[in-house]
């Protein structure tokens, strides 16, 4: 294993960078395949969790299959990104693949028990995210400036490609037996030899791991996600207490994993705020179309999943080209265009909710293209806002914010859709009932997108370093 020492000379550092860059470019495809196999399960199980609950006589608890893995995802995103600043990416990656395969086998052979299925899903999510976090950290640390945006765009594209396969698989596989969904990520076992051979085995020499600080912050993040899925005043008390404890730890600890300079970095914190607002309703896009297709247009689940697959294919294409687009147009122009697409897509869906499901699919392609396009400039800007040795923590925080925000947004979405007041009246002639509820929900989403656009205009200077 290679250690990075503060006494390393410039020539040695350049040679080490080129070696790690070469290994990284060979390792990233394998990491991406494993991440894809794990990620496609997110949307697949988000689509069919109710079917699983019904088949196991646990209908009232079915949503746990979606919410609890989401909570795990939010926490481990932060944890893995942080660990990559201290521990060898190779060690973390091998542990992740092992967890992913074990979770897959546990879920398949324990498919007759709801609680085993739930535990297996959490293990799968935790294992799959290792590869995603390591991919991002390696791309931001070990690639040249003009390569970062391209690989970030590809990563984003693969996420949506996995979502497309996941939605399709969820609609298709459940037609005979949903338990076979668990076996799909197990194919990642074939990537292990390539990961072992090419992933850099490098760690920071002399750096002390702030285990206490990481544990406090992980508990804080977990309680936030849990509260919005299972509201309780005691969780609020716990969140406030842990926030205070963490603040004291950062202030008085000699080596906190998040330093004062990290937290007071205005550029990075403005990027984090934008990340939170942009992704707030990201998880709600699948269930709202399930409701629209089923309740308004009386469409079968297989047709709905096909339409959503088209939407995610569009997102994949946008993701592939987002890196080169940023290199040509710059971050600010790309973010401005993406923000407008979000507003247009959501507002258009609200207005034309009962016109045509295919028109809604086209509008969904517009706003999914917008949410896809904001990813790369946000992460790319963050890599320049932080020192290289803090990029892992930066990735962890951004991943945590993205998934926690989407989980909170999902909880807000569920609460609003369950509120009878949402069905009483729709704008622009939309009839009351389900049509009014979904239309009003899209107006709320459009308002959130408009807020993101306003915040982007306010903080646009945070995106103007190095590349305009």
TrEMBL record:
Start and end residues of each Major facilitator superfamily (MFS) profile domain = 27-464
Regions crossing the membrane: 31-49, 61-80, 92-109, 149-172, 178-196, 208-228, 234-252, 272-292, 298-321, 333-353, 359-379, 400-421, 441-459
Q: How does it sit in the membrane?
A: Multi-pass membrane protein
- Give the UniProt keywords, A-Z: Membrane, Transmembrane, Transmembrane helix, Transport
Gene3D superfamilies xref list: MFS general substrate transporter like domains
Is Transmembrane found in the keyword set? yes
Q: Any coiled-coil ranges, and where?
A: none
Q: Name one GO cellular component term.
A: plasma membrane
Give the InterPro entries listed for this entry. Answer: MFS, MFS_dom, MFS_trans_sf
UniProt keyword annotation of Zinc-finger present: no
Entries under SUPFAM superfamilies matching the protein = MFS general substrate transporter
Q: Which GO terms describe its molecular function?
A: transmembrane transporter activity
Cellular compartments annotated = Cell membrane
Protein name as catalogued: MFS transporter, DHA2 family, metal-tetracycline-proton antiporter
Q: What is the lineage of its organism?
A: Bacteria, Bacillati, Actinomycetota, Actinomycetes, Bifidobacteriales
């Amino acid at each position: 294993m290679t250690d990075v020492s503060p006494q390393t000379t410039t020539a040695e550092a350049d040679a080490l960078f080129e070696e790690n860059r070469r290994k990284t470019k060979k390792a990233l495809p394998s990491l991406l395949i494993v991440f894809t196999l794990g990620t496609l399960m997110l949307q697949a199980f988000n689509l069919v969790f109710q079917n699983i609950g019904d088949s196991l006589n646990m209908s009232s608890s079915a949503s746990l299959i979606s919410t609890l893995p989401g909570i795990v995802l939010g926490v481990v995103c932060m944890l893995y990104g942080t660990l990559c600043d201290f521990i060898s990416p190779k060690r973390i990656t091998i542990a992740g693949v092992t967890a992913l395969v074990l979770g897959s086998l546990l879920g398949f052979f324990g498919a007759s028990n709801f609680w085993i299925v739930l535990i297996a899903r959490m293990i799968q999510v935790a294992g799959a995210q290792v590869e995603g976090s390591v991919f991002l950290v390696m791309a931001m640390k070990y690639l040249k400036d003009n390569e970062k945006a391209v690989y970030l765009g590809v990563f984003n594209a693969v996420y949506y490609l996995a979502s497309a396969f996941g939605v399709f698989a969820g609609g298709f596989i459940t037609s005979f037996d949903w338990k076979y969904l668990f076996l799909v990520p197990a194919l990642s076992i074939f990537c292990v030899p390539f990961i072992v051979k090419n992933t850099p085995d490098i760690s920071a020499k002399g750096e002390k791991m702030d285990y206490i600080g990481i544990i406090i912050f992980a508990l804080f993040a977990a309680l936030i996600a849990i509260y919005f899925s299972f509201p309780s005043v005691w969780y609020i008390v716990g969140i406030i207490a842990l926030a205070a404890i963490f603040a004291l730890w950062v202030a008085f600890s000699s080596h906190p994993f998040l330093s004062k300079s990290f937290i007071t970095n205005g550029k990075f914190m403005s990027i984090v705020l934008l990340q939170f607002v942009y992704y707030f309703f990201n998880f709600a896009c699948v269930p709202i179309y399930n409701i629209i297709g089923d309740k308004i247009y009386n469409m079968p689940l297989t047709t709905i999943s096909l339409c959503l697959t088209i939407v995610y294919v569009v997102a994949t294409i946008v993701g592939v080209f987002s890196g080169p687009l940023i290199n040509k147009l710059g971050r600010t122009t790309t973010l401005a265009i993406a923000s407008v697409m979000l507003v247009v897509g959501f507002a258009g869906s609200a207005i034309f909710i009962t016109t045509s499901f295919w028109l809604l699919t086209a509008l969904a392609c517009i706003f999914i293209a917008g949410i896809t396009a904001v990813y790369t400039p946000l992460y790319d800007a963050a890599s320049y806002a932080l020192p290289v040795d803090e990029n892992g923590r930066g990735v962890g925080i951004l991943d945590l914010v993205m998934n926690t925000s989407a989980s909170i947004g999902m909880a807000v979405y569920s609460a609003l859709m369950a509120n009878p007041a949402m069905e009483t009246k729709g704008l622009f002639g939309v009839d009351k009932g389900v049509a009014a509820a979904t239309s009003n929900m899209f107006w709320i989403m459009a308002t959130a997108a408009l807020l993101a656009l306003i915040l982007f205009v306010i903080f646009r200077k945070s995106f103007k370093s190095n590349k305009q």
